[in-house]
TrEMBL record, chain A:
<dbReference type="InterPro" id="IPR017871">
    <property type="entry name" value="ABC_transporter-like_CS"/>
</dbReference>
<keyword id="KW-0547">Nucleotide-binding</keyword>
<keyword id="KW-0813">Transport</keyword>
<dbReference type="GO" id="GO:0005886">
    <property type="term" value="C:plasma membrane"/>
</dbReference>
<dbReference type="InterPro" id="IPR015854">
    <property type="entry name" value="ABC_transpr_LolD-like"/>
</dbReference>
<dbReference type="GO" id="GO:0005524">
    <property type="term" value="F:ATP binding"/>
</dbReference>
<dbReference type="InterPro" id="IPR027417">
    <property type="entry name" value="P-loop_NTPase"/>
</dbReference>
<feature type="domain" description="ABC transporter">
    <location>
        <begin position="5"/>
        <end position="245"/>
    </location>
</feature>
<protein>
    <submittedName>
        <fullName>Putative ABC transport system ATP-binding protein</fullName>
    </submittedName>
</protein>
From TrEMBL, chain B:
<feature type="transmembrane region" description="Helical">
    <location>
        <begin position="784"/>
        <end position="806"/>
    </location>
</feature>
<keyword id="KW-1003">Cell membrane</keyword>
<dbReference type="InterPro" id="IPR038766">
    <property type="entry name" value="Membrane_comp_ABC_pdt"/>
</dbReference>
<feature type="domain" description="ABC3 transporter permease C-terminal">
    <location>
        <begin position="701"/>
        <end position="813"/>
    </location>
</feature>
<keyword id="KW-1133">Transmembrane helix</keyword>
<feature type="transmembrane region" description="Helical">
    <location>
        <begin position="696"/>
        <end position="719"/>
    </location>
</feature>
<dbReference type="InterPro" id="IPR003838">
    <property type="entry name" value="ABC3_permease_C"/>
</dbReference>
<feature type="transmembrane region" description="Helical">
    <location>
        <begin position="740"/>
        <end position="764"/>
    </location>
</feature>
<keyword id="KW-0472">Membrane</keyword>
Amino acid sequence: MSAILRAENLYHRVPTSEGTLTLLNNISLQLARGESLAITGASGSGKSTLLGLLAGLDKPSEGRIWLAGDEITAMDEEQRAAVRARCVGFVFQTFQLLPGLTAQENVMLPSELRGERNAAGRAAEFLARVGLEHRLGHYPRQLSGGEQQRVAIARAYCSIAGGASGNDGILFADEPTGSLDAGNGERIIDLMFQLNAESGTTLVLVTHEQRLAERCHSHLRLAAGEIETADLLSRDGGNLSEVSA
Amino acid sequence: MAATTPMLPLKLLGRDWRGGELALIATALVLAVACVTAIAHFSDRLTRAMHIQSQSFLAAERVVRSSKPVDKGWLEEARARGLQQAETVSFASMLSAGDQFQFAAVKAVSPGYPLVGHLEMRPAPDASRTVVRQGPPAREVWLEPRLLPLLNLDIGDSLQIGEAALTVSGLLDHEPDRSDNLFAMGARVLMNVADLPATNIIQPGSRVRYRYLFAGDDVALARYFDWLEPRLTEHQRVIDLREGQPRVASALDRAESFLFLAGSLAVLLASVAVGLASRRYSLRHTAYVAVMKSLGAGRAKVLQIYIGQLVALAFCATAAGLLIGSLVQAQAVTLMADFFPVDPPPSGWSPLLVGLATGFACAFGFALPPLFRLARTDPMQTLRRDWSNPDRREWLGLVLGPTSMLLLIWWLSGSLPITLALFAGMALLVGGSALVNLLLVRGRLASLGGPWRIALGSLQRRAAFNTLLIAAFGTGLLAMLSLVFARTTLIDEWRMQLPENAPNHFLINIAPHDVQGLQSLLDENGVQATELYPMVRGRLVAINGVPAKERKEQAGALRRELNLSWTENLAPDNRILAGKWWDEADEGVSVEVELAARLGLALGDRLRFSIGGLEVETHIASLRSLDWNSMRPNFYMLFAPGTLDDFPATYITSFYLPPERKLLVNDLVREFPSVSVIELDKIIQRIRETIDQVSLAIESVMALMLVAGVLVLISGVRASITERLQEAAIIRTLGGRRTLLLQSLVIEFGLLGIAAGLLAAIGAEATLAVLATRVFELPFTMHPLLWLLGPLAGALLVGVAGTLACRSSVSQPPLKVLRELA
């Protein structure tokens, strides 16, 4: 199976008043289509920074990243945005739903940004898949935390489904259960893995929860911006075997 | 990413509106446009009304004055061009009725007179005044009321003017162009021009003044006068308001400048309000944009969406603002209808254009730059959960906003001095804001502890934003202070020019033997007259031995006789600027300083005068300034006592006579028949009424502006409210007392208000200095009250508005505040 995500020798440094701070130090990884990767680590270990770089939200100080066949580190922000629009979906810890939009409108947004027709129908379909077909017209403030995260998941899959060709879609989730109680968290995880399996998308998630990490094919543990451990759980013999720490 | 559908910005706009976010910026835009449109409409209509009122001083829109009848072809040409036309013929004549005789100022008027304004007459002494739009019919005359007892006449009696016997059919109480000849002597008689030939008064050499009145479409009128003016001879002149009634013209000019200033300040305030609202909108939309970017929207896409929204919003808000502004001014004019002398005519299209330009200039000049910053939002912010705005200097914001504002103000005011004055005031304000803010945050007030520590800490955390806030508050206060003080300066100046008891009657041709008796009569009647000045007529014939006719300076003063006088005492409105006023033994002449400048005269120059065929030579002992508006006798040349003793003189004086004692003039005329009375009471009354109306207009526009200023202050407070509410709620959660928080809020906003007020006072003083010297042409004086009022008003307005806006942070449970903000 070919790699949908590949990173080579990533370094990320930021200037501070006390000198340059290295957030990521020589990270390499590779992930095949349809697989899932959990990134764990203590707070400040660089998990979210790595997630952002892999998704093309930012550029590393050094190193190269390929996402769905494109080298996104060679692209400017506009080009990376085009790649994200085509094959990336996001689920955030704090849901990041736009408060002025209804559940359906939030899910429609990626389709509308792409100028697609029938955005409303597609959004309704995805909301039905996450069990919120009765909440289309509700605003985020009228939904519980678990429901809001389900809307966010619907938006992420709607984003991938509309843009990605074949199974090029990749879902990035940043501590998706971080703002939820245990029961809701469990249901959200089940939902994500179920949708992932149904649509053949790739999943990269940042989490603190060991149980969640164990459900993924691969598990990368960061400490102080470096790979501490990398567990090889991949179905096809493990692309993470190429990880260099 | 595929192209976004063109409707997406509109769809998002609709959703945003529903969510309440856009209401902030839309409200600011609607208010800005409504405020500017209302002021522009109001100013336009007031200016038109004032012009109609002022044109009534001429009884026409334009007048040609001539000492001879003009070519009839000129008048036919005017009629052919669709202009209205009328004429008046004025002369002095002795009237008789039975055995009574009286010298009077007669005016014969043609049908159509007056073209602008109206006459007021009474068909009988005890009847009420009637407004009429034309003069008496043929064979009839209307008299000024005091002529009836002087000539022993009643309504219906016959009056002899020259060889014509005409019937007295009414009393004339008001004629619009009475000021046409201020020094016309005697009471007014109005007759029909058709009766003029029958009087047989006008003979070759008679002193007659012909006035040809014109009115009509502005363009046609302008074209006609372009055609006519090259044809005028040296005996004919075009009279407009500026020449006909300079005092009113000057008041109108200044009032117009004031209204333009008010309009410009409205634009300034509107810009600041929109700028603040846009900044807040952009801050609150950082999360939106970060999410959109993480979903694959690039910078161009974000800009496309937000600019699309802004265009749609600018259209809708501008349309709403134009409508509201027009309705508000219509309502204001209706409410104030009783105060206006004439119905303000509907305004043209220009106020709507001004409103439209304001809407788009504010939207794009001030709302666009924050959107450009918004489009730079880093998508990583979604992961960092940090919603601060990209903190980069935006050159576009620094250039676009102020440039569009200045261009708009320049266009609106048509005055570079006003534009530069405001720019100078604003530059002082912004520069000062940074400095004052620095002093505030570095000050040692925090060592006072308690609420001071919290307030100062809050100021320090928002140091950059506070500079903007002080500048915004300062702009609001600057606008309010500038207008209040400019209005006070103008109105005080007008009132000083025409005080309540300004002399309104002049007595001239007083023979030396009548001086004593006249003085006694005035004293007996409690009338306080100015000094009686002797007067001889003489011509300036040589300066330093050079004959006047050889001088390069061709001032009128060299071509005509001057009134020469002498006095021991310097009049209160005269001031010696060079040289010295004489002691007893001194000789010489004191020359009015502006005439001296025109003739190139200096102290010590020798002047030779020809008086009644004899010549007198003396030196210039002093140069004097004087106030021609004081309504007192004043002279270009004042001699040392004794110099002109050998020449026969008559005397002149002026005094104030209240309307209820008007008949004293009749006693004067009867007792001293050789004395001529010049009556200025009616024209002074009319000028005063006009200036009162202009003052009212200025005050009403100022009130509108004060409302706009307060709105800006509220916008400023709202722009920073969220963070403050959040901090206050956290402090309360940690056990902070309500009174502590309340005190810290009062201190924080109070300090911001004082800083803004102080800077506004500096800016307003600078603005007023430029306005006084360059626009209103008045001497500049400092305004100590401004320096007290600025900080005080700042502390009070900003302190109260800020504390009220944030009161929910202390009045509501902190959990509720935090939940609402989340």
